[in-house]
Specification:
alpha+beta
């Protein structure tokens, strides 16, 4: 008798635990409880999946080839800086193919000297057959290209996950699919367009110098209407010097809300990249305009101080995804590892910019393969039908068991009910996500148990 009593006590404790764990999943009843009692319950219960409460489903593909090109372009900047530090003058260092870097230099004894300096460049190997007395060609082997592509997908996965976590979406699903695809499911999202823009934002932050000494810089119009960027580029395409590019700054008139673009002649060489950022947060300026305050790590702070010291009274462009946010004049050497990104954006836009900068830049652009938006009305219908199906299946099983097996059936019905209570309590305790397949599985469990 003692053994049976102990089992009944254990069973009662399990039932009480299941009810306690499930209550936060039922907000209508949970909110009526007094505050002191709420604190005794778990914070979360069962979360509804994408097919029940609505949301967005995205299948994204990482542009792997572009990731390799970006990696090679960064190596080009590294080689340029290395040769500049060694005081070796070369005519050009540029990416000439998908994964090739070509150096052109005056004829003489520079070739052996450059080869010795570039021996330590990781990943690259010299293509002796493609070079000459005045050129050197370095390229990435197939193994290194494969490593960069795989690393780009994994980095994109982590970057998206960090952005979604800071955006505040509950129970997101972010996982790799196949070789180069990423699946993102955001249930219950209230601003799907903002979430999609936040995910797809490449967020490649770069600091570049303006080329104000070139004649083309004075020929560019002061500002143009939004949508006229292509015509400006075509009009001055032949005049752009090698090593320069035309980028635009977005300007919005506060009174009329009309958008303009200011063209600048910018040097392609990246003075400092966003991978040296340690923090980014929104602040309010003296005119109540939001801006993003960024902080650099130790290496970035040293580089930023050196760059500003060497370019006093020159203009530096702060570029994000080939769009200029501001182009201030460097008045003096800036120490302390801090800078500001100002622009014509709202507090929400500034906050989103800070999120993507904190989470890090995507290693390559993303291509949307599939974009589905599930409405909440479909979720309500699914929940109602799921509950009706579960109740109907449960009633039919209980009645059949009681009618066919008499007292044994009633005892089995009691055990089945306890099984269902414990199952729901376990799902709530584990903060599981409830989906249509999960409801179907519960119904199948009841039927099989009967």
């Amino acid at each position: 008798m003692k053994k049976v009593g102990g089992r009944f006590v254990m069973l009662a404790l399990v039932v009480v635990f299941s009810v306690v764990a499930f209550l936060p999943s039922y907000p209508a009843l949970f909110q009526t409880l007094p505050p002191w009692l709420k604190r005794a319950f778990p914070n979360k219960g069962i979360a509804l999946g994408l097919d029940l409460q609505g949301g967005i489903h995205l299948v994204l593909e990482v542009e792997e080839d572009r990731a390799v090109e970006i990696a090679v372009d960064r190596s080009v900047n590294t080689i340029q800086d290395l040769l500049t530090d060694k005081k070796i003058a070369v005519e050009s260092v540029k990416r000439t193919g998908f994964a090739q870097v070509t150096l052109v230099f005056p004829k003489g004894d520079l070739k052996a000297q450059i080869q010795k300096i570039l021996e330590g460049i990781p990943g690259f190997s010299e293509n002796a057959g493609a070079g000459s007395d005045s050129t050197l060609v370095y390229e990435l082997p197939e193994g290194e290209i494969k490593r960069i592509k795989d690393s780009a997908i994994n980095q994109a996965l982590e970057t998206i996950r960090n952005r979604i976590d800071q955006f505040g979406v509950a129970e997101p699903l972010i996982q790799r699919q196949g070789l180069k695809q990423i699946v993102v499911q955001l249930p219950g999202i209230k601003e799907p367009k903002r979430a999609k823009d936040l995910i797809k934002e490449t967020a490649l932050l770069e600091f570049k110098m303006l080329d104000d000494t070139n004649r083309l810089a004075t020929e560019l119009p002061q500002r143009v209407l939004k949508g006229q960027e292509e015509s400006i580029l075509k009009q001055h395409q032949d005049k752009i010097p090698e090593g320069d590019q035309i980028l635009f700054e977005k300007v919005v008139e506060k009174d009329s809300g009309r958008e303009y673009r200011i063209p600048y002649l910018v040097k392609k060489r990246v003075m400092l990249a966003g991978d040296v950022l340690s923090d980014a947060r929104v602040s309010i300026g003296q005119f109540n305009d939001p801006y993003v305050a960024v902080s650099f790590d130790a290496r970035g702070a040293r580089e930023f101080e050196r760059i500003t010291e060497e370019n006093v009274k020159k203009r530096m462009a702060i570029v994000l995804d080939n769009t200029i946010y501001s182009a201030p004049v460097i008045q003096e050497r800036i120490s302390g590892g801090r800078a500001q990104i100002t622009g014509s954006f709202s507090t929400q836009e500034a906050n989103d910019l800070a999120i993507v900068l904190r989470a890090g830049a995507l290693p390559a652009p993303l291509k949307v393969i599939q974009d589905l938006t599930v409405g909440p009305s479909l979720g309500r219908d699914s929940i109602e039908k799921g509950i009706q199906s579960t109740l109907l299946a449960g009633v039919m099983v209980v009645l059949f068991m009681a009618f066919y097996y008499r007292l044994s059936g009633v005892i089995a019905d009691f055990a089945l009910t306890l099984n269902l209570i414990c199952l729901i309590g376990a799902l709530a305790a584990l903060n599981a996500t409830l989906t249509l397949p999960c409801i179907a599985w519960s119904i199948l469990t009841m039927c099989m148990g009967g």
